[in-house]
Amino acid sequence: MILQIISCLILFFLTFIHVYWAFGGTKGISAVIPQDNHNQYKFNPGKWGTLLVAVCLFSSCLVLGIQSSLIPFIKQSKLVHILCFFCFLVFGLRAMGDFNYVGLFKKRRKTSFSKMDTIAYTPLCLFLSFIFIYVFMTK
Fold first, then answer.
1. Residue 4 in contact with residue 70, Cβ under 8 Å?
2. How far apart are the C-alpha atoms of 7 and 44, rounded to whole Å?
3. Domain ranges of the chain
4. Cα 111 to Cα 94: distance, rounded to the nearest angstrom
5. Which listed residue, 24, 40, 51, 79, has the most CB atoms within 10 A of its CB?
6. What is the largest CA-CA distance in the chain?
7. Closest-CA residue to 57 (of 14, 97, 95)
8. Mind listing the pLDDT tens digit of every residue in the chain (139 residues)?
């Protein structure tokens, strides 16, 4: 149960970080967007894209909270069970990456993003993926 609580807190924290960035915050932004070998960003997510990520993170926090019974006043359902498996897939696929800039099998490894991806983002996605599949299998 402690791992589910920690995971929900992490997802909740990441939600607020994305909202902060969406509304103009700049702290830490240089290490969260993939870069090419010339340190040029591969994309610019913009306000609405960043808010969409925040909504997805918050939704996954709710799914995990409901499926783990951390949110007792909302009943578990087949939909939540399916969404739990979907979160497992999304975080697992993010951990595997695009085989170029992101994930376990990335080729680009010398940018500030790729270093943070190796030590923090990919391991976190693996952890969350395992938490979601654990909760999916046990509930």
1. yes
2. 27
3. 2-30+45-138
4. 18
5. 51
6. 51
7. 14
8. 899 999 999 999 999 999 999 999 989 887 888 887 777 778 888 999 999 999 999 999 999 999 999 998 888 899 999 999 999 999 999 999 998 888 999 888 888 888 999 999 999 999 999 999 999 999 7
Token pair 């939540």 in the structure block, residue:
80
Return the residue matching tokens 């949110």.
71
Tokens linked to 23: 């509304």
User: What tokens were used for 3?
Assistant: 């791992």
Structure tokens at 75: 């009943």
